[in-house]
Write a structure and sequence with these properties.
The structure is a homodimer. By secondary structure, the first copy, chain A, is an alpha+beta fold. Helix content of chain A is 22%, strand content 28%.
C-alpha cells in the first residue's frame, strides 16, 4: 500500500468521512455507465421501456450509486484500502438526483496480522437532495500504521 | 416488480445462476468507467502512475468488477430484484483479464410481508481466466410468487 493517503493514527471511532457530492444524474451518465459496464438493460436508457415496466421513467443503475459510495471511501482512504463493502438499496435514484455519500468510523481494530495494518469498520450511506437515504452500507478498510 | 423475469417457484436451494462471462478488460473500458462514475483516479488510467505507486500497471476499479457481479444477478432475476449485496475483494483485476461471475441459491425464505414475495439468499463469486476468485460475495434478492 505505497499509495496510502490516510494512516491508522489519522482516524478514530467517530471520525467522519469527507462527504462526496456527485453531479446531478444525467441520462448521458447512465448511457456511459452502460458502455463502461456492458450492462445495456433498457430500463436505464429508454423512458418508454421504463414506463411500460411500471417504473415511471429511467433510473440509475444501483451499482452506479454503489460506485459513488465506494469512491467516497477510496477518495478518502486510498485505492486498495477497501477490503469488504456491502450495501442495501433503500430508494431509487432518478434523473436529476444529487447523490451525496457520507460515512463515519465505527470501529478501529488493532493489528493482528503482524504487518502493522489496522482494520477500520465504516458505516456508509448515500442520500439524495431531499435528504432521503438511497443506500446504506458498511465497509471494512485496511490502513497502515505510521509506526 | 412488473418486470420480473424469474419467480420464486423457478428457483430452489442449490439453483445455479447462469454464468456471466465479460469481455477481456481493456484500458478503454477503465477510461469509460471513469467517465461514467466521475472517478478519475489515475491509478486506473496511467501506467506510469500505477507503476510508481507500486502496482506494476493499471488495474480495474473494484466497483467495475462488483458491477459485473451485480449485473449477473439482475440479468438473471431482473433489475430491481437485488435488495442487498456485499462483496470481499479477493484479488486485483488487470488488463486482459476475463471475469466470469457465478452464483447459487443458498436459501429461499417464505413470504412474511403479506405481499407474497420471497427472499432468496445468494452466494456469488467472480473468477478470472485462471480460475482465481477475484470477488466473493452474498446478495439478497426479492422474487414474486406466481400464486
Amino acid at each position: 500500500m505505497k499509495y496510502a493517503k490516510v494512516y491508522a493514527e489519522d482516524v478514530q471511532v467517530g471520525s467522519e468521512m469527507p462527504p462526496l457530492a456527485k453531479s446531478p444524474i444525467q441520462q448521458i451518465q447512465l448511457t456511459r455507465y452502460a458502455g463502461a459496464s456492458g450492462d445495456f438493460n433498457p430500463i436505464h436508457q429508454d423512458a418508454a421501456f421504463a414506463k411500460a415496466a411500471g417504473m415511471g421513467d429511467v433510473f440509475a443503475h444501483g451499482m452506479l450509486s454503489m460506485g459513488f459510495v465506494a469512491q467516497s471511501v477510496t477518495d478518502w482512504l486510498g485505492v486498495g484500502s477497501v477490503r469488504k463493502i456491502g450495501v442495501r438499496f433503500a430508494a431509487i435514484v432518478r434523473l436529476g438526483d444529487v447523490v451525496t455519500c457520507r460515512g463515519k468510523v465505527v470501529a478501529k481494530r488493532p493489528p493482528k496480522n503482524g504487518d502493522g495494518t489496522y482494520l477500520v469498520d465504516l458505516d456508509l450511506w448515500a442520500e439524495n437532495q431531499k435528504g432521503e437515504k438511497v443506500i446504506t452500507g458498511k465497509a471494512v478498510a485496511v490502513l497502515p500504521s505510521r509506526t
